[in-house]
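Shipment paperwork, digital attachment
Item: protein structure file
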Amino acid sequence: MIQNQGEMKLQHNHIKNKIMDFKKTLLEELDLQDIPNEKKKELLEKTADVVFGNVLLQLLNELNDEEAKELNRLLEAEKQDEAGHFLYNKFPNLDQMFDAEIKRIKEKLINEK
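Attachment content:
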């Protein structure tokens, strides 16, 4: 399933919006609105990195060697749009994978509060 540039951008933006929504609700649910902005930003960035990292590890475990090399090549060349296209073609359920990981991390953080 080949997608055009517009569809790739929409998918990339969709994932970014998921992460932004996650950050906002996490602040509210952990009652962190009153901490200094710098600390808030640091916490949210680290949490978003964990979400991305965990999903990427899941994806890498499902790729064969050639596919993993191709993804690595795209990421090292900073071709995020092409890497996104590659991943969405290989994993049509990518959105659901991010949703599940966001939910898992959020529940873990709330339970540890």
